[in-house]
Amino acid sequence: MSVVQLHARGSGRGPAAAKGGVVAALDVGSTKISCLIAEAVPSRHRSADGEELSALRILGVGHQLSRGVRAGAVINVDEAERAIRLAVDAAERMAQRTISEVHVNVSGGRPLSRLYAASEAVPSGQVTSRDIDTVLNSVLVQVDPGRRAILHLAPIQYQLDDVRGVKSPLGMFATSLGLELGVVTVEMAHLRNLSLAIERANLTAAGFVVAPYAAAKAVLAEDEMSLGAAVIDMGGSTTSFAIFFEGNLVAADVVSLGGQHITNDIARGLSTTIAHAERMKTLWGSALASQVDEREMISVPLLGERGVDTVQKVPKSMLTGIIRPRLEEIFELVRDRIEACGAAHFAGRRVVLTGGASQLTGTREVAAQWLDRQVRLGLPTPMTGMPESAHTPGFAVAVGLLKYAVKPDVHYALPQHKAHEIRRAQHGYMRKMGRWIAESF
């Protein structure tokens, strides 16, 4: 795997979308591994600039209980490989197709996002392709991922003199040309471990997409992407967010708390098994207290007990009292991360919640209170052939990966000399780490 996994610099349109071909998405989560196989077919509609669009028809769906993955990171390659194989095999059987490439989400590896900017004079007064290359190189030389891998390297907006938000400056008049570039990086070891599990399942990663970015592709409306919005993807062990403005990813980050932590809190607080805690959370769980909660009793099987004392009765309010504090902690951390990233103003006052953990009753209300923004629950866009069980927030990332596969975003690659410089530095670091481990153990 190369250090810089980006599409080659060229026309700036990105790779060609698959037309009439089969694309596959693999959502490697901490509690569930999902695989979607779809066929890209020509659409009757065209985009605003006249470009032909492709529609998706779902051919196969497979999902499996996640194993070997914790907090979005692979901790056991053998178990992760086995779970990936089972999910992909189920999707292949349903689709009656065999796949070799998948687009994969990245929910671990501590993703970090940064904005880089530069401005250069336009000697002729009219922007040429050489002027665009000059300002682009001025921005790219600033990019230094260090010991991390670049996941996304995409233009945010151009600026002509004092006019911001320019999409295509070629041929326009100005005295100076500016460019803002968004860069998302992840830990290199995380990507390598994820790639290893996928390769051992006889698959190739066609591309990696940070999880909230993929979820946004499935749940955000075009106006929300344009005007500015934040997407919060609530998974089993992680809660990640992405901020969009003018249709571009501006910031992304992750918090290592999710729905599984709520389940564990219930299991500990009520002294029951994790399986029963998950069942109670699904059937009766809520973050909103009501007057009848004190009178309504629920049965809780006690962990390790046998005989007549195996079940205890507790008021439903006790369950709510366990769920709400953990949800408040999650959204408090997300709020702090959004404010700290320096791009909170791009999101405006719009938040879209998605992911399996967002389906818990009262989650939307708690999020609105702590984030002080308008919050809605995001469902993936319905597609032909999609079963009803997949039309839930839990499949938003997988659906978004399919949409990304059909129409990838514009990406730039680092200049060759810069990429070689980073590669040498990273390889030197890995050699030092290997020597330190050999000498220490």
Summarize the SSE layout with pairings.
Blueprint: E1 22-28, E2 32-46, E3 52-65, E4 69-70, E5 73-74, H1 77-95, E6 101-106, E7 112-121, H2 129-140, E8 148-160, E9 163-166, E10 176-187, H3 188-200, E11 204-210, H4 211-219, H5 222-227, E12 229-234, E13 239-245, E14 248-255, H6 259-270, H7 274-284, E15 297-301, E16 311-315, H8 316-340, E17 350-354, H9 363-371, E18 374-377, H10 396-406, H11 416-440
Parallel strand pairs: 1-6, 6-11, 12-17, 17-18
Antiparallel strand pairs: 1-2, 2-3, 4-5, 7-10, 8-9, 8-10, 12-13, 13-14, 15-16
Report on this model:
The protein is of the alpha+beta class and 441 residues long. It has a domain at 112-187: Dna Ligase, domain 1, CATH 3.30.1490.110. The protein contains eleven helices and 18 strands. It has a five-stranded mixed β-sheet with strand order 3-2-1-6-11, sandwiched between helices. The protein has a five-stranded mixed β-sheet with strand order 14-13-12-17-18, sandwiched between helices. Helix 1 crosses helix 3 and helix 4 packs across helix 10. Residues 1-19 and 436-441 have low confidence and may be disordered.
